[in-house]
Amino acid sequence: AMTTCRRVLVLLPLLAVDGPDRLWVVGGEGDGARLAAFRLTDGRHIDEPTGSPGGVVAVAADARSTWVLNDAGVHRLAPRGDGPSQPIDGRPVAVELDADRVWVLDAVRDELVLRNSHVDGSPEALTETVGPAEVGEDDARGALAVDAGEAWVSDGRGTLARLPPGQGQLEDVEAVDGDVVDIALAGPWAWAATAQ
To answer: Per DSSP, which regions of the chain are E strands?
Structure first.
């Protein structure tokens, strides 16, 4: 069955809000990309978190935890020292948090792969191939959004797919024209940002 996505929204990349008081931002490029935190109340910079890795590609946060994605894998930041981490097999693309699950999209050889695991660092519960990966000189293209166990994923080109809650297989979605470069979920709506 095909689902149609017709809403278009431009999104700011590499931002995550952690509870009611903190905004995470990834600054820089390549190995020099670092994670920074700002207070939402006054916009002041908060020191870089302990154990934050370099080469940050993406960040996801909720009121309970913050996860950072880089070439080595996905890492949970802990108040003191290192938290659990999950290695990845390829080049990092995106990370999302949803309830007790951390979701990762990475490019493995020539395939874009969606994975999820429990936030406590347990082994992966899902590994699903999205499609061919488009890997540039510095990074791989793709987008990921997850809400209430429903995942939406794009290969950064015209492919958009949906993983319904509790299912183990992606469903193709009839998308808008253009390359889907970012996705957001809000209630019953899936929003896709496209590049023409």
So the answer is: 3-4, 7-8, 15-18, 22-27, 34-39, 45-46, 58-61, 66-70, 73-77, 82-87, 91-98, 101-108, 111-118, 124-132, 143-147, 150-154, 160-163, 171-174, 179-186, 189-195
pTM score, whole prediction: 0.76
pLDDT in tens, 96-143: 988 888 889 988 888 888 988 888 777 677 888 887 777 665 566 888
> What's the number of CA atoms in the CB half-sphere (13 Å) around residue 41?
4
| Residue 18, number of CB atoms within 10 A of its CB | 19
What pLDDT is recorded for position 20? 55
Distance CA 154, CA 120 (A): 26
**Ranges of the chain with pLDDT below 70:** 1-20, 47-51, 78-84, 123, 135-140, 175-176, 196
